[in-house]
Amino acid sequence: MLVLSTACRRYGVPQRMLSDSGGASISNAFEAVCARLEIEHITIVSTQGESWLNIMETHFNVQRRLYDYQFSLTQNPVEFEQVYQAFLETYNTTAHGGLVKDGFATPIPLVVLGQAKGRLYSEDALAQKFSRALFPRTTNRHGCVTLHRDHFHVAEGIPQTQVLLWVYEDQLRAVWDSVVLAEYHCRYDGQKRQVRDIRHGTFYATRFASPQGAFIPLKAEESVVVYRPQMPRRQVKLPLPAQQWWLFELVHTA
Predict the structure, then answer these.
(1) How do residues 8-18 score in pLDDT, each as one tens digit?
(2) Which residues of the chain does CATH 3.30.420.10 include?
(3) Radius of gyration of the chain (CA)
(4) What is the topology classification, in CATH, of domain 2-112?
């Protein structure tokens, strides 16, 4: 879901999409998003001799041959992401053998596919398409967000920034620029489309670290979720009706 959302925001919504028959690609949530975006989702079955259609496996093999050794030398998520960005730069700016064979004047993927765009949607329209599992929120100056009735920490390094809160099963993930910033456990009410019982936060080291170090560093096991109870509606006191005196007093007689 995160990969599809990022691709749609950067390159537009494709007309059709090819994937294997893995659980993630045939899940009800994924198929529902494809239906709302009018994407023709084509699945293949490797055991039926269709593995040659899996274009993604070709790209994985290229990555494995070019950069698996560099990936193995990384020590933390920040280093791994830097190496991955270097791989993307190398891959997109290196002449492709297939494009050379097809006679492209400039057989560089970034040039050939640089102008390729799908159907463009506004940010609000895409958020609505992914609304069952996606909640855009803007962090405050401390890097915290409020979701429904809970207020919790995401990342200090990105104040006043819109992040995406993804809900998948019992996990809530805060993502910005395709990078997972924090992860919480939660409960999701599909009928009311509300997230509840957010707890047990985990924070990851990213390139968006705050330039000013924290006086007391926030550890992964020290996340705090502030619950904001729903304020009761203010009861408006109606004025008491004015007492009307009888013009003539009625006296009980025998």
Answers:
(1) 988 899 999 88
(2) 2-112
(3) 28
(4) Nucleotidyltransferase; domain 5 (3.30.420)
